[in-house]
Design goal:
Keywords: Signal
Strand order of the largest sheet: 1-2-8-9-10
Radius of gyration: 26 Å
Strand content: 35-45%
Structural class: alpha+beta
Number of strands: 10
Number of helices: 2
Amino acid sequence: MHRFYCVLTTCLCLVLISTGCRVSVGVNAESETDMGSHHVIVRPGNAMTSSTSVTFGDSATYEFTCGAVKIKIENEALSVNGKSYGMLEPEQEIEVDNGTVTVAGQVRQPVAVGQEIEAEKPSQPKPEAD
């Protein structure tokens, strides 16, 4: 009889262990929010999110943090994790998928601050050499 209980206990332990191996913890596939007129999707998602918005006259700033991803739209200028990704048109959708930033279906690369400033300046005529 003692052997029967040992076998039964062993079988129950194996069932419990194998069941434990099948349990999976659900992870958010994506997190979504609206930032002004822009719909934003972050993949992979995170349960820890926060968002803020500040408007003052014509000036508007939106921030969305999803885990380690921080998205900021300030007067239609997009930045992700402190890097600039250029200007947005109204209602463009933004996706950040494992670090890749896509705006309106087009992948964008970060723009260096110096390049952005140079692009905004009108070209100055070069002085003529004597």
